[in-house]
Design goal:
With 226 residues, the protein is an alpha/beta fold. The protein has a 6-stranded parallel sheet, with helices on both faces. α2 crosses α5.
């Protein structure tokens, strides 16, 4: 008898086999950037005597603070205003420091290479900036594998709006229903669902408690697709 986890993996592999194109999220899916970002915010909250629960922080993951902003929330909690330019500059330094030796998450490079060998078109759709995403893709030597990279500074609404995924599908020349999305966040999973795309959700240590009920399949790691 197969377990629910095994059934989900088999379903995910079948989705991958059927896909005519694959669209990847970036943060938390290809590189474990989200824990460093969360930790930087948690330190700011702790300095003000407040915790930052992961279930609360998950509201902003995948949406670029558009739908919930930790800074706004902290100001409401403390009834104070902060110099966010200074704080965010320090946070960015901490994030860069914490991610200095970060690489691709397990299974990512092998999956991308296998898809490329099979001639499957690939794209990235992210609510982060091109500077951030393109910088990482180039640093990790995987940019050439992607036919399109769509980010928030392309002038599109961020996730959970489906616009980023729909634009990526358009750039790949594929109908949305034939593009498989790989996501790690609730907002990203919702965006893919709204775009009419099958979506495999792969939670990480920051997003593991989020709601993935809209996912077509949910697995534990990209390695399970190999």
């Amino acid at each position: 008898m197969t377990t629910p986890d095994q059934t989900a993996v088999l379903k995910a592999r079948e989705l991958l086999h059927q896909a005519r194109a694959v669209i990847f999220d970036f943060d938390g899916l290809l590189v474990d950037t989200e824990y460093a970002i969360y930790s930087s915010w948690a330190r700011v909250f702790a300095s003000c005597g407040h915790p930052l629960p992961l279930d609360l922080f998950n509201q902003c993951l995948g949406s670029g603070y558009t739908h919930w902003n930790p800074g706004d929330h902290l100001e409401q909690l403390t009834n104070r205003t902060f110099n966010w330019e200074t704080i965010n500059a320090r946070r960015q330094e901490e994030i860069v420091r914490d991610l200095e030796h970060a690489g691709l998450l397990p299974g990512a490079r092998e999956l991308i290479c296998r898809l490329a060998e099979a001639g499957t078109p690939m794209g990235v759709a992210s609510s982060s900036s091109h500077r951030w995403v393109d910088g990482w893709l180039n640093k990790l030597d995987i940019m050439p594998y992607f036919q399109t990279v769509v980010c928030r500074d392309d002038g599109l609404p961020v996730k959970p709006d489906p616009a980023l995924f729909l634009k990526a599908a358009e750039n790949l020349g594929m109908p949305p229903s034939q593009c498989l999305v790989l996501e790690d966040s609730q907002n990203g999973t919702t965006a893919a669902f709204r775009a009419g795309m099958p979506v495999i959700s792969i939670p990480n240590r920051v997003t593991e408690q989020a709601d993935f009920s809209l996912a077509t399949s949910k697995i534990r790691s990209l390695t399970e697709l190999l």
